[in-house]
């Protein structure tokens, strides 16, 4: 069972328990009711309804999984819910939490403007008139992305044009009080020319004009992207494991 004195009743107390971590600031928007718990250094909170059912957590993975198991027992988490947790080996969940899907990724963030990049001045905010070209580029260059034109969580799209065409794009999915980049891609026949660096730098600079921190997510095996992001200042990292809860055995 969840012990009463472990419960955190709002965003401010969750943030305080987590040391003001940027991941928490990104996950929980100011002014939205929030409910969380802490145990042995781990802090876990339920996602607000507009983000679907699930939970996020920071801190040690073992105590975070203990909290997950307690919330499942209380009926606050159910099969199919998605959780973004501290990185853990799948074996750690055995006997604690039924996992239907397990994906590792990294949350990177920066608080400083990137060094200027060639072609960065070509990065522009896109408009509704760019929607057909944007859809075509995403379908061609990043068909597996979950960030797509029409996604209500996207604040703005940015891109780089060449002639009448769109050759690079990325989404501003800022949430909470953290800027967030997502869905960055470059047309296959335009790669290797520095457009990815230009797009990332231009978008980061734009978001830092409105936020004190900008973050993004990347799979750790995408070595080229990780190297690029670090070169542009995204040197702070939180390792993550996202899971989808499976049926209880």
- Provide the β-strand percentage band: 25-35%
**How is the biggest beta sheet arranged?**
12 strands, mixed
What are the segments in which pLDDT stays under 50 over at least 5 consecutive residues? none
Overall mean pLDDT? 94
Classify the secondary structure makeup into a structural class. alpha+beta
**Count of DSSP H/I helices:** 6
Strand order of the largest sheet: 1-2-3-4-5-12-6-11-10-9-8-7
N- and C-termini, Cα separation:
19 Å
Please estimate the helix content.
Answer: 10-25%
**Could you state the order of secondary-structure elements as H and E?**
EHHEEEHEEEHEEEHEHE
Count the E strands. 12
Compute the CA-based radius of gyration.
19 Å
Q: Please state the overall shape, judged from the principal axes of the Cα atoms.
A: elongated
Q: Which helices and strands occur, and which strands form pairs?
A:
Elements: E1 7-8, H1 11-17, H2 22-27, E2 36-39, E3 42-46, E4 54-58, H3 61-73, E5 82-86, E6 99-110, E7 123-125, H4 131-141, E8 156-162, E9 165-172, E10 179-186, H5 195-208, E11 214-218, H6 223-231, E12 236-245
Parallel strand pairs: 4-5, 10-11
Antiparallel strand pairs: 1-2, 2-3, 3-4, 5-12, 6-11, 6-12, 7-8, 8-9, 9-10
